[in-house]
Amino acid sequence: SPAPADPDAKPQTGGARMGTFIGVYLPCVQNIFGVILFIRLTWVIGTAGVFFGFLIVFTCCCVTMLTAISMSAIATNGVVPAGGSYFMISRSLGPEFGGAVGMLFYTGTTLAAAMYIIGAVEIVLTYMAPSLSIFGDFTKDVSIMYNNFRVYGTCLLMVMGTIVFVGVKFVNKFASVALACVILSIVAVYVGIAVNFNGNDKLKMCVLGKRLLKDIAIDNCTKEEGGPLWKLFCNSTAGDVVGCDPYYDQHNVSIANGIMGLSSGVFFDNIMDSFLEEGQFIARSKDPEEIQPLDRPIYNQVVVDITTSFTILIGIFFPSVTGIMAGSNRSGDLADAQKSIPIGTICAILTTSTVYLSAVILFAGTVDNLLLRDKFGQSIGGRLVVANIAWPNEWVILIGSFLSTLGAGLQSLTGAPRLLQAIAKDGTIPLLAPFAVSSSRGEPTRALILTVMICQCGILLGNVDYLAPLLSMFFLMCYGFVNLACALQTLLRTPNWRPRFKYYHWSLSFLGLSLCIAVMFMTSWYYALLAMGMAGVIYKYIEYRGAEKEWGDGIRGLALSAARYSLLRLEEGPPHTKNWRPQILILAKLTSDLVPKYKKLFTFTSQLKAGKGLTVCVS
Length: 619
Description:
Blueprint: H1 20-32, H2 35-39, H3 41-75, H4 84-128, H5 142-166, H6 168-195, E1 204-208, E2 211-212, H7 228-233, E3 234-237, E4 240-244, H8 246-250, E5 253-257, H9 288-291, H10 310-317, H11 337-366, H12 369-373, H13 385-389, H14 394-426, H15 445-459, H16 464-492, H17 506-523, H18 525-545, H19 554-569, E6 583-587, H20 600-609, E7 614-618
Parallel strand pairs: 6-7
Antiparallel strand pairs: 1-2, 1-5, 3-4
Helix pairs in contact: 1-6, 1-11, 3-10, 3-11, 3-16, 3-17, 4-5, 4-14, 4-15, 4-16, 4-18, 5-14, 5-15, 6-14, 10-16, 10-17, 14-15, 16-17, 16-18, 16-19, 17-18
């Protein structure tokens, strides 16, 4: 039979209870499908190629699946009270690790809100209403774009923070709308790929030689003297041509179709990677003559805005598979949490992983390689590639992705303050005591204010590609500790470790932990060290100030097992003279208050053994 509930846990309250589908599966699906799916996945596939793109997605999905298996074992170990993922980790690993991981999870959730907000602003400014740009034409200078994201992101954060402060009921109702938008958008993309099996003429690109051009109307894609292209690449004085760009002189222009369709065989053009450095041209070849600017003006040629590699892309993509703990966070509202959390979470991961992995194959087989690598759709007039694949209209994806991204941001801004309040109420981190207070309406107002401030710091980075790897670190640390908790409890065979979920093994948990650490250091070794350093500082602080809780956790069991193992290894015979240490037995008399009567006896004993030997005290 399962172990009893944790004595520190609050009892479950009555009320409506949710099943597996509504309570776990749908929230997980909604949280996993994020902004990266709509605005970065095509770029990741085009840049990494089919082979590395599939490997990136598969690796990230493996991390979440192995973590979900470990989490299912922890969640089904006894009755699951309200408290969610933080409760599970802290009660399995102890107050020090629990507090450290809780703060990492909180920081990750808060930065996720920042990423969703910047993503929503990017969708509006880049693809829906470019005329709203405050600082001029952002297609000419990428820094203008990021400044727009910062200003509009800050405004949107204030609005969303106010909504969360005023009405959490609205956030919960909007979650259903956001989920409907996500499902509708994904269905529209699949239908669009099928409808465009033979390609279409909707998206045309102007190509000079092998280089992709931007902001050029298809009607103007010609080298006719006096035309827009000629005026761009050639200098003239009083009607006389002074000179044209050498690359322009040597190459012809051509018009390329963006959406080729599955029947075109474009899949084979997308198999190999196209990793480039910042400032290089997007071209059909990796020949230095094609991709290097060579100290000449860029004109209207599309350039790479950030350096790319396998490790950088895995860090950018990873946040799109997070959100697997959305179901466990609702553990207090589930009718049967022990049944619902494992089934709902694992089915949600299988569903989303299937969509992501199939998207790699389908996008690579449908879209031209140059267009896949054009991150902001500059070659097609600032249009979103995924939206133009979808059926019946691009606005289905634009509006759907915007609303779903807003919904995910609101969910993060709602969940993060409650997580911080739960950590503060545990009392393991004395510094957080002020955030344990609720408002008169029972809302964690102070925690919300801190969350908005941290979120604002993330928005000031101004770029999804800079935020995503940082956000990945915090979630990877959290998932790593979930796997560690499951492995430790299994190997130590603690008496209360009897999960009802039987499909776990300590080796799977260690594999999950190893993958988490590997992805962290692959993505960014300095971000990984920063996250580990932050966890270490919190751990030592809790150990020093607040670790007075006894939750029957695995770390206490680990210490006991280590002590037992060491004692059993001691030799039975007399020790060698080099290893001799005084071992003293003290027979102490106690007072009526059970306090040693002769305390100086302990001081004398300490001096005798000089702190080196073993002292056993009995009364």
